[in-house]
């Protein structure tokens, strides 16, 4: 194991940047090493080793979110090939629990960031709008495992939902008006009132150290 | 040239004498007790001494860490995140309820539905139950083996000297001793069973066979310096039954077979293993399969049933997990052995990793490397519990019975009871498992959709 000085410096930097505590960072670092096979970066293939993730219908979207340049705050479009530990933590920080000492502004910011993460998951071509195609894509993926649902019904469900969303965002539309897609502001409007800050986080267990006693 | 000769013979003499002394000691203190199944208590004494040394070493490390203001202990965790136990349905209902403008009785797909899956996905990426079962268990304090040194840095000179001494003792004294014992044990097994094979069938042959087997396994136990504590020996498996245990390493066989007389089940290998197997089957009926026969489940089940129904034959030893797990949990038991209908005698084996980690990570180490690692650890300490026999109930199916046995073993050994298949070490999740979640979710949506279209 390396010596203490440089790693605690790095850890402190990461604590400042991402908001995790140093214990949590250490735990996540071990998990990172496990996933990457002790390499310095993770690629998409490394996520194939998690059996529980296979059960998730939107696993490809979740994995993609890790490499999305918008989530990594590196560029407005495109995907990275591999991510290092700091990037890993950046993505994880979208799911950090809300702290009790946050003020209104911080809460609002937190909520916006979390919603932006979800928006990016829908908006796969990074054009800033969730089009009908992209919406259909998500619904199909979520319903893909069921052999009894044909593509047609998945489509119509998506179309129905899209129309509802349009009516919320734009109100009554003229018959020849085309709804281009849900922008981020419309997205925020849809989620108004839904309390996601407390739902969109992963709770860390309290770490206790144990003493040695025989 | 001539000057060398007497010098040479002196060395040869010394060598000869020391070897003879060594062998006599070996014989008296190890082999003879093994034959008769008694123990001088040397290994227990060794274990107590080691514990005292570890305690001293830990104290020194604590002191040293305090001086340098380090954090010495790794945080204890059984997983780093608290997974939310709410189900898919509850969660989606809750989110939709809090939405502003939707009525509850006409739900359809909503943007928020993606939520639950997103969070679940994140949770599994952060920490999942399965992957951590396939790597060695981490220790809370250092046991002076460099292979378990993850976090403990150089603390003091005395500790390093102690570690160096440990290396010397383990590699230069214990290792050759253990290899010699192992060699003796294996060759005695082959020779002994072959000789017993020439005897005419009868009670004398059985008696000899049993004792030859036991003797050789006991020698092997000493070859690994295995200190085993058996609990509840009155529940030991009887003829016509199947003995079922959790699997951590190939050593499990030696541990169980040194306390009881079992019939082994397995595939015939080539090389040294094959020689041993062929010799063993001459003395008493073990169940060995050819490679091609292993795939045929009916054939396997048939032969096992045949063996079990013959009351004069020995109890079969089977490890239903099918692969080695790292001894912190018990994984899915394959139902094959539970379909046969014989009495099942469950056995729980729990190793104490402080003296040497017995888990065989077959993707990391081959068999020979593994055995060498075993022989250069301090010792193998484990506890074996014989659980009371269980039989399949009238309307119980094999899978349910297997799970019942598995829970009993997990509970006794203090291991986590998991539903996952040990085969995931090498393969991917079966597609049938994947579809469950998606079916549940789509039922929620399509079911509602149908209601809507009807109204």
TrEMBL record, chain A:
Mode of membrane association: Lipid-anchor
UniProt entry keywords in alphabetical sequence: Calcium, Cell membrane, Cell projection, Cytoplasm, Differentiation, Lipoprotein, Membrane, Metal-binding, Myristate, Nucleus, Protein kinase inhibitor
One Pfam match: EF-hand_6
GO CC annotation, single: ruffle membrane
Domain spans labelled EF-hand: 110-145
InterPro entries, sorted: CHP3, EF-hand-dom_pair, EF_Hand_1_Ca_BS, EF_hand_dom
Location within or outside the cell: Cell projection, Lamellipodium; Cell projection, Ruffle membrane; Cytoplasm; Membrane
Main subcellular location of this protein, as a coarse class: other
Molecular function per GO: calcium ion binding; protein kinase inhibitor activity
GO BP, sorted A to Z: cell differentiation
Transmembrane segments: none
PANTHER family attached to this UniProt entry: CALCINEURIN B HOMOLOGOUS PROTEIN 3
Protein family membership: Belongs to the calcineurin regulatory subunit family. CHP subfamily.
Function: Functions as an integral cofactor in cell pH regulation by controlling plasma membrane-type Na(+)/H(+) exchange activity. Promotes the maturation, transport, cell surface stability and exchange activity of SLC9A1/NHE1 at the plasma membrane. Promotes the induction of hematopoietic stem cell differentiation toward megakaryocytic lineage. Essential for the coupling of ERK cascade activation with the expression of ETS family genes in megakaryocytic differentiation. Also involved in granulocytic differentiation in a ERK-dependent manner. Inhibits the phosphatase activity of calcineurin.
Subunit structure: Monomer. Homodimer; disulfide-linked. Interacts with SLC9A1/NHE1; the interaction enables an optimal Na(+)/H(+) exchange activity.
Name of the protein this chain belongs to: Calcineurin B homologous protein 3
Organism field: Phascolarctos cinereus
Gene expressing this chain: TESC
From TrEMBL, chain B:
Protein name in UniProt: Glycerol-3-phosphate acyltransferase 4
BP-aspect Gene Ontology terms: acyl-CoA metabolic process; diacylglycerol metabolic process; fatty acid metabolic process; glandular epithelial cell maturation; lactation; phosphatidylcholine biosynthetic process; regulation of multicellular organism growth; triglyceride biosynthetic process
Entry GO MF terms: glycerol-3-phosphate O-acyltransferase activity
Protein location: Membrane
InterPro entries: LPCAT1-like, Plipid/glycerol_acylTrfase
Transmembrane segments: 12-42, 155-173, 179-200
Keywords in alphabetical order: Acyltransferase, Lipid biosynthesis, Lipid metabolism, Membrane, Phospholipid biosynthesis, Phospholipid metabolism, Transferase, Transmembrane, Transmembrane helix
Protein's pathway: Lipid metabolism; Phospholipid metabolism
All residue ranges annotated as the Phospholipid/glycerol acyltransferase domain in the record: 241-352
Family according to the record: Belongs to the 1-acyl-sn-glycerol-3-phosphate acyltransferase family.
The keyword Metal-binding is annotated on this UniProt entry: no
Source organism of this protein record: Phascolarctos cinereus
GO CC, one annotated term: endoplasmic reticulum
Pfam family, one: Acyltransferase
């Amino acid at each position: 194991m390396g010596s203490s000085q440089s790693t605690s410096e790095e850890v402190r930097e990461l604590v400042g940047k991402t908001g995790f505590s140093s214990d949590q960072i250490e735990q996540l670092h071990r998990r990172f090493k496990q996933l990457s096979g002790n390499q310095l970066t993770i690629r998409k293939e490394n996520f194939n080793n998690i059996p529980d993730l296979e059960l998730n219908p939107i696993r490809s979207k979740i994995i993609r979110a890790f490499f999305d340049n918008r989530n990594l705050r590196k560029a407005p479009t495109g995907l990275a090939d591999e991510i290092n530990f700091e990037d890993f933590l950046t993505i994880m920080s979208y799911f950090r629990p809300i702290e009790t000492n946050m003020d209104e502004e911080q809460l609002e910011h937190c909520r916006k960031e979390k919603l932006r993460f979800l928006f990016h998951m829908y908006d796969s071509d990074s054009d800033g709008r969730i089009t009908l195609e992209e919406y259909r894509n998500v619904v199909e993926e979520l319903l893909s495992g069921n052999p009894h649902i044909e593509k047609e019904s998945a489509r119509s469900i998506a179309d129905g939902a899209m129309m509802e969303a349009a009516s919320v965002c734009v109100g009554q539309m003229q018959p020849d008006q085309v709804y281009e897609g849900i922008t981020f502001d419309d997205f925020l409007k849809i989620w108004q009132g839904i309390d996601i800050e407390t739902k969109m986080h992963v709770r860390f267990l309290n770490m206790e150290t144990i003493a040695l006693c025989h | 040239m001539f000057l060398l000769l007497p010098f040479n013979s002196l060395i040869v003499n010394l060598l000869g004498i020391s070897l003879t002394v060594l062998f006599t000691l070996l014989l008296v203190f190890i082999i003879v007790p093994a034959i008769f199944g008694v123990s001088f208590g040397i290994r227990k004494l060794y274990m107590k001494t080691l514990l005292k040394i570890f305690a001293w070493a830990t104290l020194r490390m604590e002191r040293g860490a305090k001086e340098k203001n380090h954090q010495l202990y790794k945080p204890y965790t059984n997983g780093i995140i608290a997974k939310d136990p709410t189900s898919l349905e509850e969660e989606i209902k809750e989110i939709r309820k809090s939405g502003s403008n939707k009525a509850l009785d006409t739900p359809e797909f909503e943007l928020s539905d993606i939520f639950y899956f997103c969070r679940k996905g994140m949770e599994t990426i952060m920490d999942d139950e399965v992957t951590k079962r396939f790597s060695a268990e981490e220790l809370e304090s250092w046991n002076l083996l460099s292979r378990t040194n993850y976090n403990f840095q150089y603390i003091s000179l005395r500790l390093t000297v102690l570690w160096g001494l440990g290396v010397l003792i383990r590699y230069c004294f214990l290792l050759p001793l253990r290899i010699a014992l192992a060699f003796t044990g294996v060759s005695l097994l082959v020779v002994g069973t072959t000789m017993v094979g020439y005897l005419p069938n009868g009670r004398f042959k059985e008696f000899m066979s049993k004792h030859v087997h036991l003797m050789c396994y006991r020698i092997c136990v000493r070859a690994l310096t295995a200190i085993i504590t058996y609990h509840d020996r009155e529940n030991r498996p009887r003829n016509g039954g199947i003995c079922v245990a959790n699997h951590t390493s190939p050593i499990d066989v030696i541990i169980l077979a040194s306390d009881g007389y079992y019939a082994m089940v397995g595939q015939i290998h080539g090389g040294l293993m094959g020689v041993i197997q062929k010799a063993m089957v001459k003395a008493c009926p073990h169940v060995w399969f050819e490679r091609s026969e292993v795939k045929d489940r009916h054939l396997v089940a048939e032969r096992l049933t045949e063996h079990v129904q013959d009351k004069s034959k020995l109890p079969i030893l089977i490890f239903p997990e099918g692969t080695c797990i790292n001894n912190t949990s018990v994984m899915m038991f394959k139902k094959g052995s539970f379909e046969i209908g014989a009495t099942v005698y469950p056995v729980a084996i729990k190793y104490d990793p402080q003296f040497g980690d017995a888990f065989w990570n077959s993707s990391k180490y081959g068999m020979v490397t593994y055995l060498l690692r075993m022989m250069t650890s301090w010792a193998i300490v484990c506890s074996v519990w014989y659980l009371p026999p269980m039989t399949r109930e009238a309307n119980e199916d094999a899978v349910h019975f297997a799970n019942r046995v598995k829970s009993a073993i997990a509970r006794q050994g203090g291991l986590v009871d998991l539903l996952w298949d040990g085969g995931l070490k090498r393969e991917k999740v079966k597609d049938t498992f994947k579809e469950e979640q998606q079916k549940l979710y789509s039922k929620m949506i399509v079911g509602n959709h149908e209601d809507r279209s009807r109204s």
